[in-house]
Amino acid sequence: MLFHPSYHRQTSRLWAHSLRAGALTLILGSLSLCQAQANPAECTPLEALQPPQANTTDPHKPFFIDTSGLQNGSGAMPVHDPHNPLYPQAIDLPDETLPPANKTGNYILGPTHTLPALWQDIQPARGRLISFTLTSSSTSGYNPGTIRDEPVPCATGMKNVSTSQPGDPSILNVPGAHPAPWTRTVDVYVPPNIPADRPLPFLIFGDGGNDGIYPGRDLFALVDRLIEKHRIPPMIIIGVGSGGGDAQGSERGREYDTMSGAYADWVEAHVLPLVEQKASVTLSHNPEERATMGFSSSGAAAFAMAWFRPNLYHRVLAYSPSLVNQQWPHDPALPGGGWQLHSPWAGTPHAVPPQPGAALIPAAQRAPLHIWYEMGDQDLFYPVRPMPDGMHDWVLAGENLARVLGNKGYDYQFVFSRNAQHVDAPTIEQTLPEALEWLWRQHN
Which of 20, 41, 119, 188 is the most buried (most CB within 10 A)? Predict the structure, then answer.
């Protein structure tokens, strides 16, 4: 995920919650404050970068950006038409109606995002919250970390000085990135009356800890209520803080947007053993009892954890996942980054793409995954102007994935939300109870 300048204005609807009170802490308010304190005169205007010309007219040339089905909205991002002919068919739901928790396929939410009745009688979380801190070291993994120094005191300075490699806008050159240490918080929630006589299912999500960006109401209290109603099995919830920063050149971007099993391996080696030790629980090793969840780039990480390590995870839940070309550093073996989960590298259109440009999921046998994810009609659309690579439309990425999953016969549900922005809080609060129920409905 990349914080677009207008994204801070868009998040005025999001609520900040303290994880120490049983929820997660939203950091966007502090980011907005930093931006407000910057001197606009010290920020390089985007126009001064002379970004490469975007190809929006010729689909037969590389890096084509299709703008059909888009219209200007009230915010910075265009509004996507859910019935764009580029997208797979989806079922329109009546306003304020949710997709069935026992069905698969593509669904379109109406524009009104009201709280489900379940939220009305939720009590504060009653379980145990255990927190611990991880710091980079010679044995921590991801050592050293990565940090991006902003060349000017501007919250979007990276976007104002980065450039694409000449002739290939899919490669972003990011000045100011260098090795640095990191510190992060891990939070473990153990619901009340959890069984102690067997290994336990768990859901692990990125962007947790003190730097979390989960914008909804109390996740832990929701889990308590869903368990009480037998809508999900008893499980442990684990929130892992990111390594810091955002997008290309940051540790957060490095971990979440890299398309490999590296992050899942790091969690397995450096996080889960400490969770078991400090919370006095035993976690299941059955991939059917392990779920990943994330928001934006941590949503991309949720997909990567399951796709590249299906021996570890079978269940994925994501809001506005960055299934786009956010991988940094650039990897010539996968030049489209997360875009290549579902679609070929955009530099070779209308041809069977040679390796390494081929899409991964269409070329592979169906994996035993259960996938629920959402995109908003005002989700991100090429937020970094110097990178018109044909692979940075968040909604198109989600739609392309839905087509691939449908064609391959996956167990999935894709929700397109009207009147919804990137990591949209009202949409999350409206859909999360059913999303969790859907994700775990086949658990025995």
Answer: 188
